[in-house]
Specification:
With 294 residues, this protein is of the alpha+beta class. The protein has nine helices and ten strands.
Length: 294
């Protein structure tokens, strides 16, 4: 007997349906945490489909997705041609895109958005849909901006310090960056210094390499070499730095030639003073002996 009931194999069981709902809720939660909304646009009728998080990112009360023209209107003017070109390249040449734009939300709040898109094609290779994600990266951009401002502040300090400062990679000893003080002290332009190893600038390469490996904080005297071949005594202060998963060291080099010359002059004066006192003592002693003999 034909009951005309569809086969159960085409329908999920209650447990499977519950699992699908749980997976959907999990995806929604992950999208909310990551601030990632997904979108899909039908090329033929321009109909758009948005996930819930994308409405949240754009602070929309309406359940109707925005059109491309409306989205571009919310973006800051300088970013509109970038977004439009990305769409044109996808439509005309099938080039996926990954762009960052500044935009306003429907409530007028500022957002930084990362938009990634690509095409979907039918069996004949015809473009049928644009699909992609939009991520709210405002917090990341604010942190990035803060980091840049801090970097500018320290860069100013870095350049105004008169002592030579070298940023050195610990493993290789490569010089990654220098300040103006280093250019002045060693006599090399910045590009030349950044193409050298730290061992190229001293007469005892093993000492500096050992200090980098052992993270020694201070080297009282290490002879340094200038571009003109002259050598001077340098006092080195080392500070380890981990940046972008790289172990580096900030090395401050101070030319202590004048200080050592002054110290030597003081020692010389002390020696002269000692000889003078000995001479005075000797003369006084002779005079006393002469007087005592009278």
């Amino acid at each position: 007997m034909n009951t005309n009931h569809p086969s159960n194999e085409f329908f999920p069981s209650i447990n499977q349906f519950k699992e699908l709902l749980e997976n959907y809720d999990l995806l929604e939660t992950m999208a909310e945490i990551g601030k990632i909304g997904a979108w899909k646009v039908d090329i033929e009728n321009n109909a758009a489909l948005w996930t819930r998080e994308l409405f949240s990112i754009m602070e929309m009360d309406s359940p109707t997705p925005l059109t491309l023209e409306e989205i571009l209107d919310f973006e800051l003017p300088s970013y509109r041609p970038i977004h439009q070109k990305a769409i044109d390249d996808l439509m005309e040449r099938g080039i996926p895109f990954d762009i960052e734009v500044e935009s306003l939300t429907c409530k007028g709040n500022h957002r930084w958005l990362r938009i990634i898109g690509k095409g979907m094609y039918d069996a004949e290779g015809k473009l049928t849909h644009r699909i992609g994600i939009t991520q709210d990266i405002t917090d990341h951009k604010l942190l990035e901006h803060k980091a840049i401002e801090e970097l500018k502040k320290y860069q100013t300090l870095f350049e105004t310090i008169r002592d030579a400062i070298l940023v050195i990679e610990e493993e290789s000893g490569s010089i990654l960056d220098v300040n103006h003080g280093a250019e002045t002290l060693y006599g090399y332009p910045k590009d030349d210094l950044c193409s050298k190893l730290c061992t190229d600038l001293c007469t005892e390469p093993d000492t500096i390499l050992s200090a980098l490996r052992k993270r020694i904080a201070f080297i009282p005297i290490l002879r340094q070499k200038k571009k003109d071949g002259s050598v001077f005594p340098g006092e080195l202060t080392l500070a380890p730095l981990n940046l972008q998963n790289r172990s580096m060291c900030i090395v401050v080099v101070r030319d202590i030639s004048a200080r050592m010359a002054a110290e030597e002059r003081i020692r010389s004066l002390l020696r002269e003073k000692e000889l003078y006192l000995k001479e005075v003592h000797h003369r006084i002693k002779n005079h006393l002996q002469t007087l005592s003999s009278l």
